[in-house]
Amino acid sequence: MKNILEKIVAYKKEEIQKRKELYPTKLLEQSIYFETPVVSLSQFIQRPDKQGIIAEFKRQSPSKGPINPYATVEEVSIGYMQGGASALSVLTDTHFFGGKNEDLTTARKFNYAPILNKNFVIDEYQVIEAKSIGADAVLLIAECLTAGELQNLAQLAQQLGMEVLMEIHTAKQLSKLCPAVNLVGINNRDLNSFEVNIEQSLEIAALLPAHLPKISESGINDPATVVYLKKEGFDGFLIGEHFMQDAYPGRACAEFIHQIELLTATAESTVKTLV
Question: Which residue(s) pair with 164 in the sheet?
Fold first, then answer.
């Protein structure tokens, strides 16, 4: 019996073939975004005036079902940026997550911040497609790809001017790391069972290359967790469900970031007092 990840990848293979017929590569390359400079995700999440939050637009998921099916990209993405997010992540998978390419393009029209195209990328066509809809960075999931496949896709993204966030779930997957990767993300959610374990970030953190920004993904719903992970050397935090479950995701994001700032200020004040 196929697990969730295998089902998604199998479906993607069929979906990609259909999209290649409907929207040939040469057509995608005519997009205005092929000539538009990208915004650096790795630089934005390390800005000292921000907290490294990559706020995600996510309507549904295979594990949770509908989360916020009637949310609008324009309202939510603008709310995220006004709330202090460092970057945006937009799910463009339709079948499993209820997203679409137009969601990312809409977010691009209303925001200057870097936008991560969140999808299950297994083919060069998807990298070109990501560039054509206005993405600044692409997600490459190590569990879906061989080392050679990941390297080829990362190099293509680099050639197109985009950055690459390589996602891993186990220390063993670090062997697939290549020079074209700009950031490394640790997914606290097992993509086979979709169970979440926040300790996953901590267990692998010490093994990550020091020069690459580190992102903790999934299962983060407490500002104190972000403060703790920042102390452990993490630069970014991809959060979607926690914000999208609120009727006003942008407001939820703003309050979350405000709490991080308060906790950080309190901790710094305590240290100064002790000194």
Answer: 138
